[in-house]
Structures
1.
Amino acid sequence: MRFIILLLITFVSLFARDNPFFPSDPNEIQMTTRAIKSISISYQNLDGSIAHETLELNNKIDWHEPFVISQKQVSMTENKKVMTSKAINAKFIKFSPQGKRMKVVTKDKLLRNFMLTNPHRIVMDFSRDTSFKPKNYSVKQAPFKKIRMGNHDKYYRVVIELDGQYQYKLESSEKDLDIVCY
């Protein structure tokens, strides 16, 4: 009996992969790039020597856009328009996305805020005794994807879904809140 078990273990180990934590197909490996520090290029000169150049980027490339390599000289400090999406008005709260910021204007008191994952989203509870049907708004401006609202007993909840993993901070004034994703 021991011989059969030993033979079975030996047979199974012949078909095991070297590292079971990596996919068997290298094309299945996916990388998530968030902070691009530099790009290195190696090339061969006419005399046959190999040269290397490194371009320091320090996160100046927006990871939402595709990467394109071109021979055209492009300045990294070109004027880049900040895309602003249309403001979203609910009866008692207004959302205005501007780049990686979202301005939230309401007279209601913020009770609490926190982050949830899968998908990444910011959750905020505001004080108001109200009743309304749940609402969904599509934002489609990176990093914001959707805004959902629903009411509870003595408060309502706002969920802002993000398109990736971010940290956020709230900057508040008397009239509004600014959500800044970074």
2.
Amino acid sequence: MTAPLTSEVAVDDVVNAPEWVRNLDYEGFQKEVTNLGKMLLAEGGQEDIDHLNKIVKWRNTAAAVGILTMALPL
């Protein structure tokens, strides 16, 4: 079960928020995202998982190269 999207928010945060944030149907948005996740899970296969893992490996490689080269002089 997912946690509700409600939380305690200061009145000033709500008053100063952009109009789209104040008017967003949070429950409807949660339902749409949940349904999209279920649809993608049902339609996805091993090929999609392999592709995502490949992207994650490239991201990790780029992060490692970046971290290792930060100490190099300019």
3.
Amino acid sequence: MKAVCLFRVSTDQQADSALGLEAQRSACERYGAREGVAIVSSYTEPGISGRKELGARQALLSALADVSVLGADFLLVSSLDRVSRDPLTLMTIEKVLAKTGARLVSTKGEGTESDEPSQVLMRRILSAVAENEAALVSVRTKAALQAKKARGEITGRPPLGFNLVAGKLVPNEDFRLVEMVLKLRGRKVVYREIAEMMTAFDPTGAWSIVKAQRIVRRWGSIRRLRKQFPK
């Protein structure tokens, strides 16, 4: 028996720290050793949401192709929600695998032991639960972001020149770079020249016309910037 494995984590932070990925890999390796299944290839999806549509899941599509090309019996995952949190996508994957005589198998079971009616029902119920959990997480996240904005807190990554401290923007050592761009633009220097001058001053800053435009669009002018962040 042969299997192709798929490992997925939803956030970049999990991907950077390998949080979850190694646990998934270990679960699949233990399953293979216990059931006499050889893992012939594996694919990893770091920082990919389980709610993404199938066409945007390149690693998953490659894993499905490997199942066919390598003659694998299973697409093996640590749990069904690692494949997708969308019931329709899961059913589509099951049909694709069935055409090659393969099956989707979870190391946790989750109704993937066979295609008996009771097992199929369990898969459908667990898939619906996973979809509902994903929707609830989305609702809670949006509510939390709205609450932060209502309190005047900044959400997301801070702009160039600032750190985010207790939800507030605090100037850092790169603040002077923002000031320089705004000063140059205030003197009617065109964006191309601003980018060239900033590159000469800060070679590692990956300066471009777009980057300079983004700074001016956000802060407007040096006067407005200093009004918000007086020295």
4.
Amino acid sequence: MVYRWPPLQPWNKFVRRSLDHLLLGAAIVFCALGVGILGYHFIAGLQWIDSLVNASMILTGMGPVAELRTRGAKLFASAYALFSGVIFLAGTSVVLAPLFHRLLHKLHLETESSCSDSDESSR
């Protein structure tokens, strides 16, 4: 069997690549969580644990827990909520990229005979 494109990666390399992407996705999420914790602590004046809870809830799309009293805190919460939506999409994309790449690669594998059959029918 001759492939038109290179063959699929071996399973162990695919798993390793997927784990690398999972770690990168986790790093993206934890960096975004750190931004939220620092913002809620220094801008909104919340305690560290309350900052963690608020940042976690916003990052997961659940909504804020503590009441925000100042304009600065409300503006930060709004900007962080928008930022969190983008981070969620980016993190999901990074984690799922190897799976979709493998799926698309697998669907496009063709044998030499099927390629030559389609070439002859197009003439």
